[in-house]
């Protein structure tokens, strides 16, 4: 959701190409949507903007895209230095809610990235947004399948609720800034809630003392 992401690739100029492929049957158009979606996931910051274009080009595209939960099960949140993005943080929360709702009950693939912020005012505003966004995701903790979180040095995520379970969670990739590298309770709670965990990576200290010794597969 970064303002830095530019959705300008000619192959994805959906508005210009819609008239040429508008007569395709829904089955073929659905496959094209899925291919575009797969490519969007490889471009940092492009997913939310790309999905917005895909679902607002015309009424038929909107109805079709909204009916395909696979297009909405990957959620990318990128918070950077651009104050314009943070000035519209309520619309960003609405977009996250839209992704969660349209993905129905599919497992969620989550990417969160919080850059270091120089301005104290922007930092405080960002923390409020990040906390609200993370709470939306925690409401669907049981649907987490793969997470890649870079919390930076200014954001400490809300605790994993006691007794919460993420039975679908298989892949964890977490990065904390140096201020929170000793947050062993967070890592322990996250791993303990994921009985199906297959891979676990923590970045922030070379020794990784917060990685539990008794991983589920050990």
UniProtKB/TrEMBL annotation:
It comes from the Eukaryota. This is F-box domain-containing protein. The lineage of its organism: Eukaryota, Fungi, Dikarya, Basidiomycota, Agaricomycotina.
